[in-house]
Amino acid sequence: MFATYLIGLREGLEATLVVSILIAFLVKSDRRERLPQVWGGVALAVVLSVFFGWLLEYTSTTLLAKSEDRELFEAVTSVAAVIFVTAMIFWMRGAARSLSGELRGKLSDALAVGSLAVALMAFLAVVREGLETALIFYSAAQSAQVDGGPLYALIGGVVTAIGIGYLLYASAVRINLTRFFTWTGALLILVAAGIFKYGTHDFQEAGVLPGIRTMAYDISGVLDPSTWYGTLLGGMFNVTAESTVLEVVAWGAYVIPVLLLFLLPGRRGSGTTGTTGSASGTTGSATGAAPVAQPAV
Amino acid sequence: MRTTRFVALAAAGALAGIGLAGCGAKDDGSKDAAGGAIAVKATDTACEVGSTTVGAGTVVFNVTNSGAKVTEFYVYAAGDRVMGEVENVVPGISRELHVELPAGTYETACKPGMIGKGIRGALTVSGSSAPLTDNAALAAATDSYQRYVQSQTGALLDKTTEFVTAVKTGDVAGAKALFPVARTYWERIEPVAEIFGDLDPKIDGREEVLEEGMEFTGFHRLEKDLWTTGDISKDGPIADRLLSDVKEIVAKANAERLSPLNLANGAKELLDEVATGKITGEEDRYSHTDLWDFNANVEGSKAAIAALRPVLTERAPELVTSLDSGFATVDTTLGKHRAGDGWKLHTELSQADLKDLSDAINALAEPISKVAAVVAK
Asked: What distance in Å separates the CA atoms of residue B8 and residue B6, rounded to the nearest whole number?
């Protein structure tokens, strides 16, 4: 039963961490008006996952019925989530910079967070694991005995994950603004790196990338994924007991440049890497409320 | 601001593009080749794959975890290339894996605790990727067996309803008389029932299921109360659950598309059932009506072979001859123990009687075990 609870916790954490940091970030930078978009993205992801899970479980659909298709889906959505989260990390960096010795009102200049981007980020964070979670729930509901053991354990795990997400949010919004941006940014980099590593692993499992059996290390003797701490490390940062060489390379290739760029105290400039955009390029004009970029879709 | 908008758009565009490629590329509606799912019974220490030879095409595994650890199930090709996997099979649930397998040799693996190399087993996939059922004779065989399943499930539902009614109205004598009769229809099609994972132990689980953390319900629970205490006053809910589980399995069994290999493996499994459960007398340990089940298993096995008969006659005539004589021997040996409309109780048989029955079953099991290979040719 505890093992089942931990699976619920892990799947839940994989979705809630990004969302709770995103919400904390929006609240902290006075962008509460973006919160409906976050919840909209989350709700859409949940609805889609539940719907596709239902299709797979109760109809003879062929869409995503094969495991490698699902791995590919998770891989693609994970990598897309990383792109958005990375963009957010650099918004944070811009925010942290514009705070140094300047007025808070300047925040809105530095942070042009499109509502579509916010909604999409929340959507991607949840949808990438949503389908798998929905499928576990359906099979638990189907095979649940009268006491419904596995189902309740799973629900308990997900609820705990949401609780942890809330605690993270609550403690994040309490700390001093500059430190908030630095710390949550750094935390987010680790989370994003984990998602990137996860996506790489899924690409390998889907057979798109090679080297699924080329292991970099195996510490399953030390870090048993069925323990509570193994679950937490896996759910938050995707620290796994066995990782392939490619996963580790991908993780390093993400963490090192992003962390360096994020922590560099350099002047405002083009803090961009090949795939990520930085929104820190605007100078603070003293007009107060700058118009917010609305992606024309 | 411009940059942000650009990034958002570019990422959204990229996502849509990759997403479409990812989902659209493979969505060509590949049909299930082997209709029935292969049951995989995973525990913390074992990984029983219901069938280790399958026909090429889309193979469906139904993985049930009755251990205490979370498990994963993999199908590997040479060099541990992952052909398909299902993760997060938490204790007490079943999950399905659909995987496209061309002919060749593979390995299956359960990974209790989600680590290590897993508990490996060989899997042979034979034939061309054209589904087995394309062969007209085999298709006719599965259709014919499907009709048999339909007729048996109909009777199973009727008799179970009568049995449940007798239990709920407190009619001990009536329930005792109906118990082996209702079970006859169940035992005839038990291999089909086993495809549906956890429904089988719910309906037909013996007291040992308690050790696996499941509730003791179904036929044998009622049997225990009927024959040991005779007190069935509190068994209403158990009886109701039995009926609803039976209804569910009947609906599923009739909707299930069986493959010719299901038939061949089912015929073999039924005999294994006889050898492990009926001859020992452990199946109906309170009522001792094991011979009813014994006979039903043999009849079910015979029905599966009868459905395959045209194919077997064409491909392996000598096998058909030995199967016929094997069944005849079992029937004669078992026929000695008739009692009125039914059978003698297990307790009325001597050790010598049981040994004769066991020998007859073993003699038949040998040719039956060759059927799958002939079907998969």
From this structure: 5
CB of A278 less than 8 A from some CB of B? yes
Interface of B with A in 34-73 (CB under 8 A): 64, 68-70
**Structural domain containing residue B141:** 136-375
Decide: helix, strand or coil at residue B271.
Answer: helix
**Phi and psi at residue B363, in whole multiples of 5°?**
-65, -35
Q: Which of A73, A140, A149 lies closest to B23 in CB terms? A: A73
Q: Which residue of B has its CA nearest to A11?
A: B88
The Cα-based distances of A253 to A124, A203, A259, B323 in angstroms read 22, 16, 10, 64
Q: Closest approach of chain A CAs to the CA of B341, in angstroms? A: 37
Q: pLDDT for A1-33, tens place per residue?
A: 788 899 899 999 988 999 999 899 888 877 888
Return the DSSP state at B78: G
CB B42 within 8 A of CB B112: yes
H helical segments located in A175-244: 177-205, 228-237
Q: Tell me which chain B residues have a C-beta less than 8 angstroms from the C-beta of A69.
A: 22-23, 26
In the predicted structure, residue A97 carries a pLDDT above the cut 80: no
Exposure of A36 in the CB half-sphere (CA atoms within 13 A): 1
Chain B residue with minimum CA distance to A123: B12
How many Cβ atoms from other residues are within 10 Å of residue A131's Cβ? 22
- B155 plus B260 within the same structural domain: yes
User: Which of B23, B64, B89, B90 should one mutate to test binding to chain A, selecting the residue with the greatest count of A CBs within 10 A?
Assistant: B90
> What residues have CB less than 8 Å from B302, skipping those under 6 apart?
B327
Q: Are residues B71 and B180 in the same domain?
A: no
- Specify the number of domains making up chain B: 2
Contact A66 B90 (CB under 8 A): no
Q: Which residues of B325-354 are buried (b: 16+ CB within 10 A; e: fewer)?
A: ebbebbeebbeebeeeebbbbbeebeeebe
Same domain, B55 and B76: yes
Q: DSSP label at A66?
A: B
Q: Do A225 and B113 touch (CB under 8 A)?
A: yes
The answer to whether position B92 is within a domain reads yes
How distant, in Å, are the alpha carbons of A272, A289, B48, B76, B210 from that of A292?
A: 21, 9, 60, 51, 62
Do B117 and B144 have their domain in common?
A: no
3-state secondary structure of A102: coil
The pTM for the full model equals: 0.55
Measured between alpha carbons, how far is residue B233 from residues A57, B168, B303 in Å? Answer: 38, 8, 38
We report the CATH number of the domain holding residue B187 as: 1.20.1420.20
User: Does one domain contain both B250 and B331?
Assistant: yes
B12 with A116: Cβ contact below 8 A: yes
Instruction: Mark yes or no for CB contact B93/A292 under 8 Å.
Output: no
- Considering just the CA atoms, what is the radius of gyration of chain A in Å? 20
Instruction: Return the half-sphere exposure (C-beta side, CA atoms, 13 A cut-off) of residue B367.
Output: 20
Q: Is residue B82 assigned to a domain? A: yes
d(CA B261, CA B267): 10
A41 within 8 A of A119, measured Cβ to Cβ = yes
- B302-353 pLDDT tens trace: 989 988 888 888 888 889 999 999 999 999 999 999 988 889 999 999 999 9
Indicate if B259 and B298 belong to the same structural domain.
yes
- Order of strands across the sheet with B94-101? B47-49, B38-42, B57-65, B94-101
